[in-house]
């Protein structure tokens, strides 16, 4: 990059030209953990994983497409013998290279070899304190191994981060887990919700109920603020959202102009499975979302011409259903995370894991609950089926459910079969109501959420900032220190 912006920073050119800025690449499905929530059911290698020559050709192709960052995952990336050779090739092309790991057997020698090859960063998974983490990862001692890996990565000069999946049992651990992460020297903490895919379908007790977002989101907001004060930046994953009173806080890391603007799969994100299958997102199901295989078609053509990659480019409001179809944010949000909604209900575009939605239903005395009705096949990235029940909070009486609706659940979108637009969509830029700190469309003069006069609320906000700045200037003058500016 020519400036100090992160490799994943998206420019208008990236969006318009469909540049696969960030690539997540499963280079092997082999794994040394047995995670109960693993969507890919990692463990054994795929029968026909790409060889070294094929992988190097993929790296050349990604560089030609304009990729700036590649994250290597598994399974466990370090269980592939040529993994450092791939890191070196990525580095030689000037692309940022990171790995995501559970860290169980990332020995000092393996880590040093990766550093020498040009590895830039390591993300280590910690899904709670030791008892919960070891239970979910299904290997005793895995927490201590992960912590040791994180500590050594920091000492090696790598950029270090922690990834945490939030499930039904995670919340009590989060404050103390954040303390641990800060003590270990990590600067970034990425969080995401556990999703109903693969092994997680076999263990539905791990999944949050949608109504629990009313508890989750305020806690995350508090931890976000505390983390910033202590040098830790919380990165919210693509299935943490959407448009509630904390959206302005974390999506843009303090830049209120940045908000959720729809699934980026197949638009600025590309993923590969170890056998060469190409998808728009690493978490999506293989069946229904594969754009082809690099052994049968070159990567450039898969990215630009394969229909399986283009659902995100073609999807519009007409593809939404259920609550999302009539939601105030439908045109900009477009149903939130594709992976989350498809894995749960068999079709994207109706996502109950939404803070705005949970708050709105609560005002009506309602909540949503998921119930498993179909197991997932014993295959990588397999999905089962869940029912989504809407019920009264006070009595638990069922009001409606997806299974009772008679709706045919089919993985399809209205513009399927059509050519994707020549230019990518530039997301709608929403404004922030200062009365309730929720996003609104720029044309609104009265906030639809809190009925505030938008202009008056903004004027009051600016006046308060001016008063606060004057107080700060007075105090810094009295203390004899340089004046500061409010963010």
TrEMBL record:
Coiled-coil zones: none
Cofactor(s) the protein needs: [4Fe-4S] cluster
Stored CDD domains: Radical_SAM
Domain Radical SAM core: 17-226
SUPFAM superfamilies: Radical SAM enzymes (SSF102114)
GO molecular function terms attached to this record: catalytic activity; iron-sulfur cluster binding; metal ion binding
UniProt key word Iron: yes
Superkingdom of the organism of origin: Bacteria
SMART domains xrefs: Elp3
Keyword GTP-binding part of the UniProt annotation: no
Keyword tags: Iron, Iron-sulfur, Metal-binding, S-adenosyl-L-methionine
The name this protein goes by in its record: GDL motif peptide-associated radical SAM/SPASM maturase
Species, as recorded: Pseudomonas gingeri
């Amino acid at each position: 990059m020519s400036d100090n912006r992160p490799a994943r920073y998206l420019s208008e050119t990236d969006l318009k030209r469909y540049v696969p800025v960030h690539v997540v690449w499963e280079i092997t499905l082999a794994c040394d953990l047995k995670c109960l929530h693993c969507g890919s059911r990692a463990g054994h290698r795929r029968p026909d994983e790409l060889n070294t020559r094929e992988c190097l050709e993929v790296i050349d192709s990604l560089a030609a497409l304009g990729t700036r960052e590649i994250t290597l995952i598994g399974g466990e990336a370090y269980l592939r013998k040529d993994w450092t050779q791939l890191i070196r090739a990525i580095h030689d092309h000037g692309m940022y290279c990171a790995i995501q790991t559970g860290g169980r057997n990332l020995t000092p020698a393996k880590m040093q070899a990766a550093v020498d090859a040009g590895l830039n960063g390591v993300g280590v998974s910690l899904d709670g304190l030791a008892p919960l983490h070891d239970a979910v990862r299904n290997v005793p001692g895995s927490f201590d191994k992960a912590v040791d890996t994180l500590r050594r990565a920091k000492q090696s000069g790598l950029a270090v981060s922690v990834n945490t999946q939030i499930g039904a049992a995670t919340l009590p651990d989060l404050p103390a887990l954040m303390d641990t992460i800060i003590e270990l020297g990590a600067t970034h903490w990425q969080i995401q919700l556990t999703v109903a895919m693969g092994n997680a379908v076999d263990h539905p007790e791990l999944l949050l109920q949608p109504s629990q977002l009313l508890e989750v989101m305020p806690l995350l907001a508090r931890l976000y603020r505390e983390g910033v004060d202590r040098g830790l930046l919380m990165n919210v994953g693509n299935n943490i959202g959407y448009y509630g009173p904390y959206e302005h806080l974390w999506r843009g890391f303090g830049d209120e102009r940045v908000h959720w603007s729809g699934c980026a799969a197949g638009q600025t994100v590309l993923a590969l499975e170890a056998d060469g299958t190409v998808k728009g997102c690493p978490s999506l199901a293989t069946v229904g979302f594969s754009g082809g295989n690099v052994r049968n078609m070159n990567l450039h053509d898969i990215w630009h011409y394969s229909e399986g990659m283009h659902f995100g480019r073609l999807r519009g409001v007409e593809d939404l259903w259920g609550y999302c179809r009539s939601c105030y944010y439908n045109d900009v949000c477009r149903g939130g995370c594709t992976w989350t909604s498809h894995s749960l209900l068999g079709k994207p575009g109706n996502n109950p894991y939404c803070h705005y939605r949970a708050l709105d239903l609560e005002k009506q005395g309602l909540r949503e609950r998921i119930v498993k009705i179909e197991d997932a096949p014993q295959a990588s990235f397999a999905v089962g089926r869940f029912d989504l029940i809407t019920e009264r909070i006070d009595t638990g009486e069922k009001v409606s459910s997806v299974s009772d609706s008679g709706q045919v659940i089919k993985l399809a979108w209205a513009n399927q079969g059509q050519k994707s637009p020549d230019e990518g969509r530039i997301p709608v830029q929403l404004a922030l109501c200062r009365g309730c700190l929720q996003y609104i469309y720029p044309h609104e003069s009265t906030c639809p959420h809190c009925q505030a006069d938008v202009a008056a609320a903004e004027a009051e906000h600016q006046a308060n900032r001016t008063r606060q700045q004057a107080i700060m200037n007075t105090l810094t003058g009295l203390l004899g220190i340089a004046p500061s500016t409010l963010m």
